[in-house]
Amino acid sequence: DVSVSVGRVIKRGIGAVNVKVKVTTENEHSRSYLELIDEIKSASLPEKVEMDTLAVFSLMADAESKVHGQDIENIHFHEVGQNDAIADVVGACTAIHELEWEKIHCTPITVGNGFVESAHGILPVPAPATLEILRAGKMMFKGGAVQRELLTPTGAALLSNFSTPVDSFPQSTPIRIGYGAGDADTPHPNVLRAVLADADDALIQDHIEVLETNVDDVTGEVLGNLIEQLLEMGARDVTITPATMKKGRTGHIIHVIAKSHDTSKLARKIITETGSLGVRVIPTRHRLIAGRRMDSVKITVEGQEFEIAVKIAQDTHGVLLNISAEFEDCKRVAKACGVPLKDVIRRAEGAAWERF
Questions:
Q1: Is the bond preceding residue 242 a cis peptide, omega within 30 degrees?
Q2: Per-residue pLDDT for 219 more than 60?
Q3: Is the same domain home to 26 and 172?
Q4: Per the count of CB atoms within 10 A, which of 20, 84, 89, 351 is most buried?
Q5: CATH code at 221?
Q6: Tell me, what's the pLDDT at 345?
Q7: How far is CA 222 from CA 155, 212, 217, 263, 309, in A?
Q8: 58-85 mean pLDDT
Q9: Which of 102, 86, 110, 114 is CA-nearest to residue 193?
Q10: Span 133-158, mean pLDDT?
Q11: How far is the C-alpha of 341 from the C-alpha of 64, rounded, in Å?
């Protein structure tokens, strides 16, 4: 059996809520992943809570399987298979279910430094299973000023299952702020902060960096090739603007929009391809973008039926913002039928607006 108590504590001057989970059952043993699934399914949890609880433990089981090189059916949970750890996960899933948050964002997670003791011996921080869960969830993380573990596999799995990683706070208006306290006393406030905020989320919030450099001795062919390579390497957009440089020389300004994790490799590519001595990086700009997805429509041209890909832009509420036909598809049809390209584009986009 498990008992839960909730109290208020002060952590380095910050008032926070501390939840203590106590196990009253003696002689707990490690559970296999399959045993854990059976116990969760027999616990009569609300359907959504059960699904999320199973998903969280699935993340941990997958990570343990990869780290230890075992089939998932043979995985045995030690610390995370104990009743108090199970209660942690079920409690978190229940709270999130009852709060009915529309969206959860997670800024880079502080994982700590040093080493941690586990059932498998002394391991580096973050523990291998924790790191694998962060990798699978594409979560951003950083170290920390303290020599201890600040993120466990359980915490990593909960964050990966429920949240979307962001590199900074989205533009929003805070409504309520809560602090949850850990048991350990550390040099910094050992608290987890949750902010309930109101945001205009009709458009998707995106965080980017802008790379810029000036060149005055690069041919148009080299610049055209550079655009193709940068886009293939992950640049979100590339533009090149004619400019007049010092001493009246003509040149170009190269602008590249990129995610922060692509900045270094894109900057290196610009330098090696153009011979530029440096690239300016304008860090973390905030932009709002429409959600985009690809679909297709069928049109008839000169008695023949063709399928044309279209790009559909919508806001997060499903409102249709724009439709554009794929250029290469339209070009192919126009050439095959001997009709103006603009007519094919107009037909494809018209068919898409009628359908979607």
A1: no
A2: yes
A3: yes
A4: 89
A5: 3.30.70.1380
A6: 96
A7: 48, 17, 10, 20, 30
A8: 82
A9: 110
A10: 92
A11: 55
- Closest among 5, 13, 19 to 180, alpha carbons compared: 19
Tokens at 273, concatenated: 């391809």
Which tokens in the block code for residue 34? 């399959």
Structural domain that includes position 301: 291-355
User: Based on the domain organization, do 143 and 45 belong to the same domain?
Assistant: yes
Highest mean pLDDT among 71-85, 163-177, 241-255: 241-255
Q: How many domains does the chain have?
A: 3
What order of strands is seen across the sheet that includes strand 280-289? 237-244, 250-258, 204-215, 280-289
Which residue has tokens 């001493």?
247
pLDDT average, residue stretch 313-323? 81
State the Cα–Cα distance between residues 222 and 227, nearest whole angstrom.
9
For the stretch 1-32, pLDDT in tens is 778 899 999 999 999 999 998 877 655 566 88
The sheet with strand 320-325 has its strands ordered as: 291-301, 304-314, 320-325
Domain boundary among 181, 198, 215: 198
- 279: which DSSP letter? -
Kindly state the percentage of the chain with pLDDT values over 90: 66
| Statement to judge: residues 330 and 341 lie in one domain | yes
Residues 250-255 have a mean pLDDT of: 95
* 142 and 256 fall within a common domain: no
Lowest mean pLDDT: which of 91-105, 182-196, 200-214, 298-312?
Answer: 200-214
CATH value at residue 332: 3.10.20.300
What pLDDT is recorded for position 128? Answer: 94
Q: How far is Cα 1 from Cα 24, in angstroms, rounded to an integer? A: 5
Residue 226: partners with Cβ closer than 8 Å, 6 or more residues away: 238, 254, 269, 270, 273, 274
Question: What pLDDT, on a 0 to 100 scale, did the predictor assign at position 201?
Answer: 62
| 68 and 14 housed in the same domain | yes
The reply to whether 161 and 309 lie within a common domain is no
20 and 34 part of one domain = yes
Q: In a 10 Å sphere around its CB, with 0-12 CB exposed, 13-18 middle and 19+ buried, how is residue 121 labelled? A: exposed
Chosen domain end from 288, 310, 329: 288
Main-chain dihedrals φ then ψ at residue 209, nearest 5 degrees? -125, 150
